[in-house]
Fold each of these.
Amino acid sequence: MKPAIGPFLLAWYQRVSRDLPWRRTRDPYRIWVSEIMLQQTRAQAVIPYYQRFLQRYPTVQALAAAREEDVLAIWSGLGYYSRARNLLRAARKVAVAAQFPREIEDLRSLPGIGDYTAAAIASIAFGRPHVVVDGNVLRVVARVTNDAADIGGPAVRRRFGEAAQAWLVQGDPGGFNQALMELGATVCVPRKPLCGECPISAACQAHHAGTVAQLPVKLRRMEPVEVRATLLVVERAGRVLLRRREASVGRMAGFWELPSPEQIPGAKAGSALGEFRHSITHHRYRITVARAKAEKPPATDGEFAWMDVSKLQNVPLSTTARKALKLANGANQFRATDELR
């Protein structure tokens, strides 16, 4: 391993790094919010959510005082909603402690913060010498070391983490970590990596061996499960009928969604308005959207409710409902993309 990897990488980052809003601060709260949002979600998709979230909750104390329903509403559309719930739970713990934890062990004790997020906050906000290890970093290490071991194995992930730790620039661990993540996100990408633009290609053993395209290796993968479903759009006087999931069941607990035909017996569905695809982990949904009339709508007793279409941005609405309503109405307030889960 060449000792110049860290300094070369950091110098490259300082020249070409993307201007992302969370890179303009060392506030641990803002860095934490960004790292949670960036889990499983592209940076460009996160930006508007990050800005709206911090405008609503500019401090950890403001978030700690929020209602869960309001937090879920502003998170709605970003997906993986356990992230928002854990963020709120952790904010309340930090607010009680009256200070943000600085050490990686203390950060890991907060709900929703694992090794990667703890290392990111500790290094970027507090200068602690801990390397971050995520999929991007594993890919870079596998290629630089030309190692074809299965990155799905915990022992291999630890070994790759130790390799990356050896590259760490002690004087600027936060900058180094951001540089390493930037390299994996923009240059050392999964398909068609831009080796000609890589600042450490001279040290990359896979580049010299011609094996970049075969790395990294991840053997254990679940086959995707294809699921078909239908959602009904039942409207009345500017309102739409929604169903609320039970408050104690699953990661979408408490969210509002469009009903399925099975949930409204006797509903008369019209012609299909179209369909869209939606992915959650290894499930691949193909969802058909249809307008419907319900001669006897379900009682609005807490499970079902008529919601004003113009106020849906104020309630936690499932991403599938947003996509379906956008398809049905073409209204700007239903923000959704197939990439968000």
Amino acid sequence: MKSNERVTLLELNGLVRDVIAIGLPGPYWVEAELSECRESRGHCYMELIQRDDRAATPVARASAKCWASKWVLIRPYFERVTGQQLRAGMKVLLQVSPQFHEAYGFSWIVSDIDPNYTLGDQARRRREIISQLKQEGVFDLQRDLQLPRFCLRIAVISSQSAAGYGDFAAQLADSPFAFQTQLFPAVMQGEQVEQSVISALELIFARSEEGGARSEEGGARSEEGGARCEGGFDCVVIIRGGGATSDMSGFDTLALAENVANFPLPVITGIGHDRDESIIDMVAHTRVKTPTAAAALLIDHAQSVSDALDDMQRRLATRAQQRLSLLASRLSLLQSALPRLFTVVKTRQEARIDTLYRRLLALIGQKVVAHRGRLDTFGQRLPLIVQRRLTTEHHRLELTAEKLKMLDPALLLSRGYSITLKDGRAVRDPQQLQQGDLIETRLEKGTIKSTVI
């Protein structure tokens, strides 16, 4: 074709189609990440990207299509092998062939998908998450917890409409034990699993921290008649029933695993089947197959505690009966031996009293003799002591009388002295008197009354 020859757009696109068909015979196996995946009229439309490992930004983009005739075979096989649906963010290995359509442009046509490649990528991510959990030291934290002996207050994380939740609640309600369950609704499939379950765990933790405060009126309650928990919780049960195994990927995230591993209450999971073990199953306290198995675990635990209590009650009754029998035997022996023992004790006490009585009489006799001798001695010495004391006191009286004579005022008056009195009291200083005072002067042979001038 000459460079100046004109062609229509349809002819030009036809040339491009032919060049691609000849130059890219295909098919090719291509590694890519899905940035978008949607179905329409049975066909699957995908947007493929490749990211820069250092900057995590797309360095290549392309559109891909899988026609319904292929998709109807590829999809169930992929989901059966991987256990999940194709979704955005998943790494895939696609078999593609180039196609250029004159009206719709270029796209890659998907003819096959290798699920083992995706499984390998999922396994790698799971290994990385598990390794990080172990490095953080939280992988086995739940194993260190113990189910409370009376594990009856159950916080349940599940979809409210899930059949598995209904079976779980009904099984507990039919048991002979007073289980109290409270549902914390969460999304259990799809991309919202992680955040929804984490929010439920946070709400359970907040309720436990509040000391089991009552839930708001009209809150979630077991539809099968389970009583609402009025206090804190004894454990958490995460159950999922009725969903496809392809929806398990939401339970394989680092954030959710960290929240479960660090939760202060034992966490029991019943979200899958034998061959579907998620990461939160690995870090949980106990992992069971199904919601009904979780209910059976709780009932068996309660039954084991009840059996242990019954056994302890029987053992206590047996021990008490044995103790009573032993005490009754000892009491019977004491009762039969009591008269003889009383006679022996009585004889011993009487002999002891006699001995004490004789010793008391002897001591009294000794004391009487000793005090009698002292009394005789005092009797002989007493007259001499009394006479000596009387003589001494008589002499003291004579001395005192002589002193009194020497101090007698009458003696002084007989010598020419006088005494001046005012109001019956002796005047010793003229300053005590004032003009007009009446004074009395006593002499040897009379009294003179005067007025002070």
